[in-house]
Structure formats: structure tokens, C-alpha cells
Amino acid sequence: MVLSGTIFTDVQAGTQDHFILTNLWTLAIARVDSIISPGKVSGHAHNLIGGSLVGRTPLSPGQLQTAACSSCIIGADKSNYWAAQLFWRYPDDTYEPLLNQNRIYYFLKGDTKPFPPGLRMITGLSQTRNASAVETTGVRISCNHELQTKYLPNGKTHPEGCTSISLGIYYPSCGLANGALDSPDHFSHMAWPISWNGSWVDDPNGVTCPSSHPIKYPTIFMENNYYLSGHQTWRSGDENILVLANGDTTGLAFHADYVYGWDQDVLIKTIEQCGHGHGPGEALTECAPLAASMSISNAWDCRLEGQIPDEGVLHILAPLHSLPGCNPLWTAEMPDVHPKCSNSPPDPPFVAPNVYFENLKYREHLPIAFTLANNASDLTNYTPSIGGGRGFSSLYWWADQVLSSGKKPKIQSSTTEQVIAGRGSGSSRECCQLDHNESQLIL
């Protein structure tokens, strides 16, 4: 499947001011967020991309560089990127995660400086909704790669339906003069570039930085492109078809995080040799510093090294009865503050995966904690319904993987007994109301 470049309003034809990371695979869909919830289970599920070493707490620059691989086509980029996962809501108020492919743009306009090692930041909002908030300036959502807005498409705004939904978002790219790596809110140490439009206005893909944040870093635009399966029928008139992992159905609570993890020398040389006027776009082989570690096969072979919460995010035989965590449906008519749960369950423990879900149509191989099978032959009895079903999706033992290189990946793995023990000490049963004889995929 070929993904279209969709930043129509910000990428001008022939403008050589950027490069694009394509063939960028999802490492996991899990409640992990080392910036907002360090050491804990995150409040909602995220789509994790980039370096294979994803910590429960933010990793140091040195630790990030020890990652075995990156799910990015450029192996020198071991950064961690993640964004709120998108779910499909069925008429019976059940949920199914959508599968996706990813693209990341790096714009190198003007006098761009490399990010400092250790930098981390967030963009967007997750617990409140405000279209005018400075944090939401970078949100770009579209139906079928058309007009970009801050809002999820639904059956009223798009009665004709969508077959693909692009969740795009810019990260702020102007830093403080002191080179601050973080701030208490993980946003205010950064700012948006500005452009003149009769007055100075925030411009996520601008060139000029405000005096408060004078250092211009690369502008990152991340695109998570989600696709509907054949059994997911668009419902004209329904405003709550698509739901973010935090329950939001408007799109205003879409957000993303970033932990910088590039090989510093590679990014410096990329800016010097392939900056404004010399950006290669998708033709990464034309930029020598990037071409040196470019490998589609290495990106496809990359596997998550760490652990995941022992709970349900994917289902084999039926969708989830509720979103993972405390995330009731948060519709447009409700207050713009994340709703509370009347009975919030305790967090599940972390556990190493024992099985992985592979989908060849969308190029996914996601680690899961699976309780049902106790030998290899059992896995053939389960055909995931998501991602096109039989012929596209399969389950395999996490510990038995052999990569296309013939090597074994650097991973942690659990036995089924360990996963079951973790499940018993956690809260996934109360959280997700699991049924269907426990026939489920667990992320």
C-alpha cells in the first residue's frame, strides 16, 4: 500500500526543504507514555514508533543509542515517537483499534540547528479540548487525504464516508535560548514558529522563531494513516464513529510525544548537506548522511525490546466493550474536560510479550500478552478479525522469531504461565468486560 504525501497546505511542489521517513512501522499499540506517566501504565493507548528501546521512564541519550534497531527506514534515528491510537466504534458501543501506516516529515527551513541530546516534548492536548489552545496549533486531521482540520471526520460532517483517516500533527520547533530539554508541562520549553500575516501568527511550519524561543530546530510532522477494513461500514449521521484512545470523538484531544534519539553526528550532517534548498523529500538515497543507515528490511525486522501492560487492546473474536484504561466515550456534547470513571480499575502489571500479531496487509507485527495457547499448534486456531482476517493476520510465538536476516531479535519474552500470573494480579477483567471464552488478543 502506497501512502500519499498529504500536507497539501504546507509542502509546496518543488520546495526542497524537507526529507520524509517512509516505511515506518508501528512497534506496539500499548498504554505506555514515559513522559506523561513515567514508571506507570499510561492513561490510554498509544501507537509507538521508532527506536526499539522504549522505556517506562524517559531514557537518557546514551541509553537510546543502545537500542538494537529502529522501526524507521533510517537506522540512525532511534527516537521514540508516539501518538494517541485511533479506534473504530461499532453501533453496539464496542471498539476495535484501526491498523495504520506512518510517515514522518523533517523540515529544515532557514537556520536550523540540531536537537540537543535529551530533548523531549509533547504536542496537542489529551485531557481537555480547546480548538484555540496553543497546544493544538499543529493538529492536522483528514478524511481520504483531503482537507486538513483539527476534527475527526464523522457521519454528519462526512456522510459519504472515509476509507482512510490521517491523524497528522506538528511538533513545536523553536527552543529556549538556554537549550532547555524539557519543562514541567513538557510543552512550554518549546514554541511554534511565526509568520507575518498582517501580524505575527503561529505557523507550525514557519521559518522564524519568536524572541522568547530563538533557537530553530527541525520541524517534525508525524502522520498516522489509518485504514478501514471491509466489515467496518461508515454510518451516515453518526457523530461517534471514530474515537481516540482517550475517548474523544472530536479530534481536539489528539496529541503526540517525542523523545529525541538521533545519532547526533548524522543529524548534524543531514542539516548541513540536505537542508533548505537540498532536501531530498522521499529520495533519501540522495542525502548521503541518511543513505548510510537506510534499510527497509531492518525497519521491518525491528521489534520492541521492552515490556507492555498485561491487558486487552486487540480482540480476536469480538471488539472491546470499553477502551483500555479509564476512558468512557467523550462526545462533542459533553464538557471539554476528560470525563471521570465512576469505578476506575487499578492498573495492570507490565509483562514481556509471549505472542505477536502479524498483519501483512498493513505491515504490522505487534507484541501481545496472550493467555489462551500453551503450545505452538494452538496459535493456528485463532484468526484475528482485525486487519482483513484470515490470509492477512496471524499469531506467532514472540520468542520463536527469526528475522529476514536469519538472526533472532533482541527481545524480552514471557511464558504463557507468566502472562496468566500477571493477568491475575491486574485489572483487565474489570476494565474491559472480556467475554467470548476469553478469545482475545492482549497488548
UniProtKB/TrEMBL annotation:
<dbReference type="InterPro" id="IPR018535">
    <property type="entry name" value="DUF1996"/>
</dbReference>
<dbReference type="Pfam" id="PF09362">
    <property type="entry name" value="DUF1996"/>
</dbReference>
<protein>
    <recommendedName>
        <fullName>DUF1996 domain-containing protein</fullName>
    </recommendedName>
</protein>
<feature type="domain" description="DUF1996">
    <location>
        <begin position="33"/>
        <end position="262"/>
    </location>
</feature>
<feature type="region of interest" description="Disordered">
    <location>
        <begin position="409"/>
        <end position="428"/>
    </location>
</feature>
